[in-house]
Design goal:
eight-stranded parallel beta sheet; about 15% strand; globular; six-stranded parallel beta sheet; about 425 residues
């Protein structure tokens, strides 16, 4: 399957660094980065570099001619040389562009928020334009997460959220005001599908689920059994490595009636979803791919983003709660010929206009950082990403020798300062 973005005028040549949750590898986030990078390069004649926590893995999945630079998340902490190489790339770029996805949340940790706050802070140290498109938000529960989110909003010149819920969450729930918030759609809608290589199968059902609190595994297994009894074949589509464990559990129950999709590129991901008779998915972007490929789907909402995003594009009737009514979903799957699929052409146009606006809108004011704040920001991040980790490594090496002779009160202070436990 091939895909491209609709051609638009754009003569301005910019160096753009694309950032986000890239290098996880999470299929949806890699797809967002690729889609935005392709639009920047093909529509707007930009020189594009992608910041990835694992560049080799991202490059292998995207299979697209674009430059990469290594960043510290999601991946290992960079050594000083690699970190300064990243800073050098930021210094030499014109625009830092966050490609979208659920960037403003701390469900698993504050690391993603920290990563975003670092990139936009350093970009502003060098007076760069910083923009974001298709951003999802919530929940942010920790105080540190809120501080990083505030930094992200403060140093972005304009942020296009992917739905009103995300925008309202930042502005009205967390009360983070920046004067730069706007609403568009999910960045994946920048794709324009040209061709589907495989015809849709009459008996393949896609399953894209994750291990999540409240996952109704019994309901899932009962639904699969009923579909298998009707001679449907189940294709399990993993989005992260942890999903493989869930597939193993289902494979033990259903044997070869359920198979694992082994998509190694974005193009093969689209081919798999495009060939399905129906998709049952908890993953936002798997469902969005289905909508774009005219594959009927049911979205199982494990958090607000599925309901709010699909409501914004006219698919609210495709969304079910995670503890879904078994018979309703079964009927939806087996009567998929009656499922109406919305025309997304007008919506892709909205997202293209949003991308054009973040690049070219002269009304967007480029925020400036005072010299004293530049120095403070640079020293803060050097301490957090270089000096403190170095001290931690050194202290862990020497602790076996010092522990017997260091007074306990001093030991406690060192532990608290460095966040370690000897």
């Amino acid at each position: 399957m091939s895909f491209s973005v609709s051609k638009k005028s754009g003569n301005r040549k910019n160096k753009v660094l694309v950032a986000g949750y890239i290098g996880g590898i999470n299929v949806g986030d890699e797809a967002i980065a690729l889609t935005v990078a392709a639009s920047l390069k093909e529509d707007h004649n930009c020189d594009v570099t992608i910041a990835s926590g694992q560049p080799e893995l991202s490059q292998k999945y995207m299979q697209y001619d674009v430059s990469f630079v290594e960043t510290f998340y999601p991946g290992k902490l960079l050594d000083s040389k690699a970190l300064f190489e990243l800073i050098k790339v930021i210094k030499n770029t014109d625009i830092l562009l966050f490609a979208g996805g659920g960037l403003l949340q701390d469900v698993h940790s504050t690391k993603l928020l920290e990563h975003g706050a670092f990139l936009c802070s350093i970009a502003k140290v060098f007076n760069k334009k910083v923009v974001a498109i298709g951003v999802g938000a919530g929940p942010i529960k920790s105080e540190l997460g809120k501080q990083f989110a505030n930094t992200f909003m403060r140093f972005n010149d304009v942020v296009y959220f992917r739905d009103e819920y995300s925008r309202n969450y930042i502005e009205n729930t967390l009360h983070i005001e920046s004067g730069t918030s706007r609403t568009a759609l999910d960045s994946i809608l920048l794709i324009k599908i040209n061709k589907i290589l495989k015809a849709k199968s009459k008996n393949k059902i896609g399953l894209c689920i994750r291990d999540w609190p409240g996952l109704p595994f019994n309901n899932i297994s009962l639904l699969l059994k009923k579909l298998i009894d009707l001679e449907y074949k189940i294709v399990f589509i993993p989005y992260e490595k942890s999903d493989i464990l869930l597939f193993g559990k289902l494979h033990e129950m259903f044997g070869n009636n359920i198979v694992l999709a082994k998509d190694e590129s974005f193009e093969s991901t689209l081919e798999t979803i495009g060939s399905l008779h129906f998709l049952i998915s908890m993953r936002l972007h798997a469902n969005l791919f289905s909508a774009l490929l005219k594959t009927p789907f049911v979205a199982l909402a494990y958090d607000n983003k599925l309901r709010t995003v699909f409501s914004s594009i006219g698919y609210e009737n495709n969304v079910f709660d995670l503890d879904f009514p078994f018979n309703d979903v079964f009927e939806k799957v087996t009567n998929s010929s009656n499922t109406s699929m919305s025309n997304l052409d007008d919506l892709t146009e909205i997202q293209h206009k949003a991308l054009d606006a973040v690049l070219n809108d002269s009304t967007v004011e480029i925020k400036k950082m005072d010299l004293h704040l530049k120095v403070a920001a640079f020293l803060f991040w050097m301490n957090r990403l270089v000096f403190k980790p170095t001290l931690v490594r050194i202290s862990m090496k020497v602790s076996p020798f010092l522990k017997p002779i260091v007074p306990s009160i001093i030991e406690k202070k060192i532990k608290k300062m460095l966040g370690i436990d000897w």
